Amino acid sequence: MPGGRGRIGVIVPANNASLEYDLWRMSPEGVTVHSTRTRPTRGCEPTDPEEFKRELSLAYDLLREVSDVVIYGRTYGTHRHVSYIKEVADLVIPEEAVEKVLRKLGVRRIWIGTPYVKQRTLEEVEYWRSRGFQVTGYDGLNKVKGVDISNTNTFTIYRLVKRHLAEVVQAEAVYIACTALATYDVLSYLHEDLGMPVISENSGAMFEALERLKISHRIPGI
Q1: What is the CA radius of gyration of the chain?
Q2: What strand order describes the sheet that includes 173-176?
Q3: What is the C-alpha to C-alpha distance for residues 167 and 169, in angstroms, rounded to an integer?
Q4: Each residue of 76-88: pLDDT tens digit?
């Protein structure tokens, strides 16, 4: 039976082509992933909070009958409207899931890699500093569009991290932002080469979803 162990729903922005790919590859046997899409918003921020909540509610209603847990599949933009999301349902929010993993591992120092332009990358850095983490360094790929981000190949992400090795080795973990980045393979490569946890939005979301389902399974990089 599909999803005999568990069914994970995911609400995906229309221009994200990587999140489902990562979740499918990370899923243990007997766990299935079921998705629906939402319209993209300019800059990932809703211009009309009430309309945003209505659309999110509709997406959630479409998924909840076939899902035991639902992931909200966006990273950037949740800092300022996370309260709207939580009004709709108890969704797995990737960035919050990553924080839970880091704290569970006892990590306080992180190196941050993003696909974003400098301004967005700095927003991520400030967010994590505001959460009490020390950031040993950061860099971004200067990409804007979701599809362009999703088209990033594994070794571009790998080299983004490794070219800052002096900063990376001062950290206790590497954090790779954005659900639109396909990270399944690079997590294993970097974890093996660096000898430290390497966590992406997608791996953090899967980790929390499986925890909520009480399913034990190793996630790449953790």
Answers
A1: 16
A2: 134-140, 109-114, 173-176, 198-200
A3: 6
A4: 556 667 888 888 8
The label of the residue with tokens 């797995």 reads 92
> Tens of pLDDT along 49-70?
788 888 889 999 999 999 999 9
Q: Which one, of 32, 39, 43, 37, lies nearest residue 8 by Cα?
A: 32
CB under 8 Å to 11, separation ≥6 — which residues? Answer: 35, 36, 37, 38, 56, 59, 60, 63, 70, 71, 72, 73, 91
Contact 210, 147 (CB under 8 A): no
Record the tokens describing residue 192, joined without a space: 């093996």
CA distance 19 to 8: 12
Residue of 120, 108, 105 whose CA lies nearest to 177: 120
Query: What span, in angstroms and rounded, lies between the C-alpha atoms of 212 and 121?
Result: 30
Q: Among 218, 194, 191, which Cα is nearest to 206's?
A: 218
Beta strands in 39-165 (DSSP E): 69-72, 109-114, 134-140
* Beta-sheet pairing, 198-200 with 173-176: parallel
